[in-house]
TrEMBL record:
PROSITE patterns reported for this sequence: HTH_TETR_2
Residues of the HTH tetR-type domain: 8-68
Highest taxon listed in the record's lineage: Bacteria
PANTHER family: HTH-TYPE TRANSCRIPTIONAL REGULATOR BETI, HTH-TYPE TRANSCRIPTIONAL REGULATOR RUTR
Keyword Transcription tagged: yes
Keywords for this protein: DNA-binding, Transcription, Transcription regulation
DNA-binding keyword on record: yes
Protein name per its UniProtKB record: TetR/AcrR family transcriptional regulator
Chain residues forming the annotated DNA-binding region: 31-50
GO molecular function, one term: transcription cis-regulatory region binding
Length: 202
């Protein structure tokens, strides 16, 4: 992710404005002049920073991915070594974000419905963001379950991410209820991955 390295207050303000307009009207309806006005800069400044609308779309897509993965990591760390609490926080955050943020939902589900020009920039990052989310989950699980079977932890992290995405695509109940059920599965998978190693060390 290179967008964070290029961040400046002006650039961040323009991307924030573009995001707000996109959520309100859809990317097809976003105009560079409107973005400039919302950000409090000149139209030329927007072009100087991003080149064209495609460049702005690229920056917006990267911003969504970066923020989502960072928030997942923060949710996992929030509860220390409490496996269930950390997993629940991350899963609930993901389900809630997908329900309320059409950009995140497009990334996680590779949605290609509709004609919104922003979708290609979002959906091409689907594999990347899922890989990063799985990696964040695996790194966290490894830190709170030291000595667990690495292969079993990797399988658990990948399975949990896939299950969460499947419930985003086809929700079956309230977000909190789904998060609780998925967290029970996650805790069982992670603790099972840790159990064999503990037994062998006795």
């Amino acid at each position: 992710m290179t967008e964070q390295n290029n961040a400046t207050p002006v650039r961040d303000g323009i991307v924030d404005a573009a995001r707000a307009l996109t959520v309100a009207t859809g990317w097809d309806g976003v105009r560079m002049g409107a973005v400039a006005s919302a950000a409090g800069v000149s139209r030329q400044t927007v072009y100087n920073e991003f080149g064209n609308k495609a460049g702005l779309a690229e920056a917006l897509a990267r911003r969504e991915v970066d923020r989502f993965v960072d928030d997942v990591r923060a949710a996992l760390r929030e509860h220390g070594t409490d496996v269930r609490a950390g997993a629940y926080a991350a899963i609930l955050h993901t389900l809630t974000e997908a329900a309320g943020n059409p950009l995140i939902k497009a990334i996680l589900t590779s949605s290609r419905g509709g004609s919104d020009e922003l979708l290609p920039y979002l959906t091409t990052r689907s594999d990347l963001v899922l890989t990063e989310a799985s990696g964040a989950l695996l790194a966290w699980a490894d830190s709170v379950l030291p000595g667990a079977d690495p292969a079993a932890l990797a399988f658990a992290a990948d399975s949990i991410v896939r299950l969460v995405v499947s419930h985003i695509v086809l929700p079956r109940g309230p977000v909190e209820q789904t998060a609780n059920a998925l967290t029970d599965l996650a805790a069982n998978l992670f603790l099972k991955a840790a159990t064999p190693t503990r037994r062998r060390r006795r």
